[in-house]
Amino acid sequence: MVGRKPEFDRSYALDAAMQVFWKKGYVGASLADLTLAMGINRPSLYSAFGNKEALFVLSLSQYLEKYAKGRVELLTAEGVPFRERVFNYLYATVKGQAGEGTPRGCYLASGLSETAGEGLPAAAIDALKAADAESVRQLESLFRTDLQSRELGLDERAEDCALYLITLLHGTASVLRSGRELSELQSTLEFGLRGLGLEKA
After folding, report:
1. pTM of the predicted model, to two decimals?
2. Which residues of the chain have pLDDT under 50?
3. Taken in order 104, 105, 111, 117, is the CA torsion positive or negative?
4. Which residues are in the HTH tetR-type domain (predicted)?
């Protein structure tokens, strides 16, 4: 009896592609890199995911679901003071950027840095910008609606506060990718919070 061919693991293949894009960027990731990491050939890649552009967009969604979603939930943790929630979110994000079984940096931030060039197709650019805008929107909503934030008057500049934190995180992603260590950035996060008027108790 002929053995049955192992079932294709779509989630595993997508995760592998995400790691390649995360490390090399869209332009730097060749189809050979992707198929090798995913354990499939080119026809299988096209059949399962479409083209490289579609694979990148799907990989971005995988990143957001697997890594970003849990960090955002820290912002609304019950019974935790506002400043601590914001710090926990920032620290968890930066810790992820430092590389824990993943490439250093941030998939989203790295992708956004490529949008200034000419190598990214339109769908990839749109997906990256939409994800970045959603990150800002989530933080803006927090600053605008959280009771403790409103007591501090941060709701009146919610959009500026949100963009400030996202900009800070894009910066930490860059310096961690270039070789800085997580331990060097904790004080940077503290400075960042003080810039918003969130002093340690």
Report:
1. 0.89
2. 1-6
3. negative
4. 7-67
